[in-house]
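Friendly challenge for the regulars: who can give me the structure tokens for this chain first? No prize, just bragging rights.
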Amino acid sequence: MKQNATTSPRVIGLDCHPDSFTAALVEGQTPAQAIVQKVFNKLPIDRLSSWAQKNLHAEDQVVLEASGNSFEVVRRLQAIGLKASVLESCQLGKLKEAHANNDKISAVRMAKAYLAGTTKTVWVPDRLTQERRDSFHAYQKTTKRTTQVTNRLLSYLSDNGVRLAHGLPALKERLEVLQKTKAWTPRQWQVIQGMLLELSHADEQREHWRSFMAQEVLSDPLLLSMVRLCGVRDVIAFTLGAIIGDIRRFAGPRKLVAYVGLNPAFDDSGETEWEGGIGCHGRSDLRSLLCEAAQAILRSDHSLAKWGKKLLASKGSYNLAVAAVARRLTVAIWYLMMGRWTELEEVDVRLSRKVGKIITRAGKQHLQAAGKSRQQLREEAFGSLKTGRVYVLGLKKMFTETVSPRPKTMLEEIRVEMEQYERERERADPKH
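First reply, four minutes later:
Bragging rights claimed.
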């Protein structure tokens, strides 16, 4: 890498494609002062590391737009000691001129946008987090595919006058059940068999990824610790690790809530005020799973469920109660992943049942590969849970950065929360 002989560091705008890249070397403190020193146009991507070592300095800042291979490019540049960042593509896209655009213009535009200080930087996940994200996205696609094929098959049956009372039956019973619904012609039955083959393949892929996620949760103490939270099981625990990654990039629970998109939108400008929902910003994939967990909590007798039902009674909106419970669950996740924990002295029946279901989901092949029995795996999981992390969300806990002393046992914490809940209810309704 070259020694820096210039007086000020440069910003390198990098426009990358799968096979080539274009780089603009820009020097200056502001976009108005920026001087384009040199532009390297459409060099082979496999020459990126050697080109960077020859032409860039350690003080230079490389910026590129978020795209398919941007994370991999950043990792390659960081491996040779360079500073590299990924800029949010949504904002850069708004700066694109409609009448003229090419790789050279894009590279210069990225460098000047970075100098202007108006662009947002995207967090570059580490290798493990990236691999988990890839697995989660594959699971999402198979789940979507399963739903699509199922709806196509049900629609075809409906077009032919067949309406199943309880949806599609189990995999082994589908052929037998569908054969009895109607006297199908050979051509009709060929169509049904083709759809069933698609559905069977999608189901197998979905189970494959469910098994993989369960194995990851069992092998990672941090992911396993999150299943202690009510409403969280293997899929949600794995997704939290894949999407959140390094929890230290969120300074507080408020930041995590905003990242997920569980803070309501609002617009207070001039004499007009507007308050919206939670569906137009944040990570919709993680938010939807946390809302599913919140619905499971509301169906339980957890202290947070009682708080949510009280909110539902006062506001009259089920969706609002679900979002509020999901928001508090997100706060608990931040505290737990940050290491604010107390030891768990015993594994209760519900948690034991949840761990058993995760082991079942992992499958027999996982037990054979690990060389352990089901009981051994359960004991290891219980040992990890007892020495790992737990956080019971208090009903009064909001977005404070400090943590008040907590009782030693989980049962004592639940008792304290129940007492707080009863005091709140008495203040709200003295006649109760």
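Residues 220-428 form one domain. The beta strands are 10-16, 20-27, 35-44, 61-65, 83-87, 121-122, 266-269, 272-275. Your move, everyone else.
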